[in-house]
Amino acid sequence: MWLILLSICVVLVLWFLFRTVNRDYWKKRNVVQLNKDLFVKFLFGDQSLSEVYKDVYEAHPNEPYVGAFLNTKPALILRDLQNIQAVLVGDFESYHSRGIDFNDNDILADNILSISHYERWKTIRQKMTPLFTSSKLKSMTNVIEKSARDFVTMVKNKKEMREKPFIALYTYTTASIGASVFGIDTHTKDAMDSPFLEMSFKSVEPSFLGNLRVTISSLSPTLFKILRIKVFGDHEEFFIGAVKKALKARRNNPQPVNDFIGLCMELQKAGTMTDKSTGYEVEPTDLVLAAQAFFFFIAGTDTGANTMHFTLLELSSNPDVLKRLHEEIDKKFEETNEKNTYDDIDKLVYLDMVLNETMRKFPPVGLMQRVCTRDTVLPVGNLKVQKGVITVTPVFAIHRDEKLFPNPEKFDPERFAPSNAANLPKFGYMPFGEGKRICIGSRYARIQVKVGLAFLLRSFTLKPQNYQPKRFEKSVFSLRDPDAKYELILRENKD
């Protein structure tokens, strides 16, 4: 407790000093400036950070960007899509950092793919990308399908899971990712019996202490390191132990298995991971690979569950869409005699449209942050951006912009019909990010969510309601509404 109080006092002192120094930072550069610290507004308010940015975005419709402060650091809320493209793709070398600092004693956090160390990030990402090729995903489909079948059985048999649907969905995403990482016996083991559920839920659940850690890291990386703060320290022993145990078991039984641990085995056999363009090297130790598996968990369980959750909420509010989706799913399941391959699920076109529209209204990650790593210039407005300035791409706000998506509050999957693909605004739809730091697991996430929803809706329908959220949970990056509910009704003759 004393450490928390000391941190708060130091943060407040630093906040006051930096605000005094930077008081007119954006005014001097002829940029519209907000005098409130947006992160402080989030920390002590009742909105998610994505909603805070959305308010700023909508309040300045004629500006290419808005100057603000995040923990006293100068920040730009980007509004123009050309500038967003420059930050995420065109001038990536100047904006490669997410500005998220970790400590080297934080084994899990300091090795995951959100790290700011460019050479280390690039080397690890190059070697992890092969896990998500089409061939690898096809080989995982049986495991994901087994998870989906067990998920539906669980929902049928346990009333409490129907009463708390978000928990049920979280159980499915955790179990299916756990199965894809460590493998399961698809003939005997119940995939829903996952030892990782509590860990994955707690690791991303919003909390004041978690937000305080982010505040200290952003405001004073030096203090963050001095205090040796760990972001995921509570999960180190359990998760690293699980990965080491899995690797040891595979070494004793070296049969090739197409899952995450199988890829880890291949990487370790290949030796040092090297970026050929720079010569930078990373040793594929058990600890480094455990961090990658952990990131796969925390990035996939929460975003997958949220996407499924919001999809079901919207389907319960749009019976015509639900009816058409039921027809597509029923037809496919009847054609395949209830046994679907990767290609079968991939051909559920209307389900894809529904998911795309869900992720437009409720993007898995509501904002993207980048820190300028060298002085550069934004193309629209010709603004000189100094090293250290934070840029924010307000994804949630962009996805709800009526100029980009007419009638944005309406749930309309037809926006994403194949015939309308050319009409989508470039860099105006970014559910998985964009550019070189686009979500590495986006293809896995899509097939995981599609399989789960397809199996669930094959057996269940939804009681009509009118979902209109006023606020989302206080989360730094995500849009979450875990307490929202819908009534799952068993479909006749589909049991």
Any overview of this molecule?
- By secondary structure, the protein is of the alpha+beta class.
- The protein has 19 helices and eleven strands.
- The longest helix is centred in the middle third of the chain and has 32 residues, at 286-317.
- The protein has a single domain (2-490), classed as Cytochrome P450 (Cytochrome p450), CATH 1.10.630.10.
- The strands form four sheets. Strands 1-2-3-9-6 form a five-stranded mixed beta sheet. Strands 4-5 form a two-stranded antiparallel ribbon.
- Helix content is 50%, strand content 8%.
- This is unspecific monooxygenase.
- It catalyses: an organic molecule + reduced [NADPH--hemoprotein reductase] + O2 = an alcohol + oxidized [NADPH--hemoprotein reductase] + H2O + H(+).
- Pfam families: p450.
- Its EC number is 1.14.14.1.
Keyword list:
5-stranded mixed beta sheet; heme; two-stranded antiparallel sheet; alpha+beta; Cytochrome p450; EC 1.14.14.1; 495 residues; iron
